[in-house]
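Internal tracking record. Fields below are filled automatically when a chain is submitted to the structure queue. Please do not edit lines marked as system-generated. If the sequence contains nonstandard residues, flag them in the REMARKS field before resubmitting.
Queue: standard
Priority: normal
Entity type: single polypeptide chain
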Amino acid sequence: MAQYDGKILMIDDEQDLLKLSSSILRREGFAVETRSDAREALSLLREESFDIILLDLHMPEMSGLEFLRQLNVRERPEEVLILTAYADLQSAVETVKLGAYGYLAKPFNAEEILSHIGNIRELQRLRAENERLRQAQGTGLGMVGETEQMRQIYRLVQDVAPTPLPVLICGESGTGKELVAAAIHRASDRAAGPFVRCNCAALNPGVLESELFGHVKGAFTSAVRDRKGRFMEADGGTLFLDEIGDMEVGLQTRLLRVLQEGEFEMVGSTETYKVDVRVLSATNRNLTQAVAAGQFREDLFYRLNAVTIDVPPLRQRKSDIPLFCHFFIDRLNDRFDKQIQGVSKEALEYLEAYDWPGNVREMENAIMRAIALAKGREIEVEDLPVTIVENTGGQDEPAEKEEEEATESPESLFHDARQRFEEQFIRDALEKTGGNISHAAQHIQLGRRNLQRKIKQFNIDVSQYSRRP
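SYSTEM-GENERATED OUTPUT FOLLOWS
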């Protein structure tokens, strides 16, 4: 029989159940502690941590619900599996709201409890792996990706950051060029200074000139007071000029002077100001062609690109998509007050098949939408934008042959387990309510239409639960 590992704390006032279950779990390789009083268990957890807590709902001194409230399980490393009698399903739902993983109905056999625990351990393994990957991402540079292309970028960032050299960052819109610039700044000796951004494509030439160099009162009609520009704001730090290829040629001349001499005049003033600023720039255009066409100054081009970093589009590094999923989920869960753990296998297939013309920025928006719409702890295909589902080149039916040939992934195992749990939960509710969909929906606190959709999804024959005289 397969051997497991991990520490389990089982809390139940039924001594026979404690003895039998702990014996089964120890035989499978788990280290097991048992407590018949939830208060004693709380005391133990102040000194020690576990991987899994098996918790009975109804105990004489302290209930499972009160135990969860006091434990604050969302802040703990353990996953909690509720052990509940059939009549306790409503309370079991409440425990999930408090952060429990799920429930196992009593009585249960060895196969059932080991299946649930095995799924939990697989989930924890996935989380640990995701955390390892997150820590490895960008070697602490704040970027995401483990492809060889990204590793080369990380090395280049670390090499160029300590130098005063200007850097030109090239890549399509939405690829994360600003993240590269910010990483260079953070790894440089200017990290304590300001990191100032300016989008050269967002403003017309007159406004951009004032934005960069500032202006004095009376320089133009709306100049009612002196205003510092981005170069002054970035003094002692780094100025990031995004979409530098869109800058008007006349303004390029003023920028070249600052790069060469470190000085400039504010708009409407003859006073010269000195600044100490490192300039990083980015573009989605081919500046070599722009120089040939007379749209970009050649001397400025060579001044800006002492070092060039090319950021690949997302479609060229699709193996990084799972990393981006976890990165965005971690960052966005709090905003939407969600506990999304990951992306289902089917949804990930769609994400990896899509070409992402808007690159990482488009993906962030897609994951944000999916998190907002997700009903469970995983993002499903139905949560994804229609544009992704409809433009994935025949991904409507995942390749069955590939799935049969490949070993099932941990993500697939976990997804299947969650689906089985959800189906059984619905069947239990239908059994309890005699097949009455409205009553079952109320019982599990799910909208009637959503329950009907789930019944159809799981191909459940409601008539078999109807009570007959």
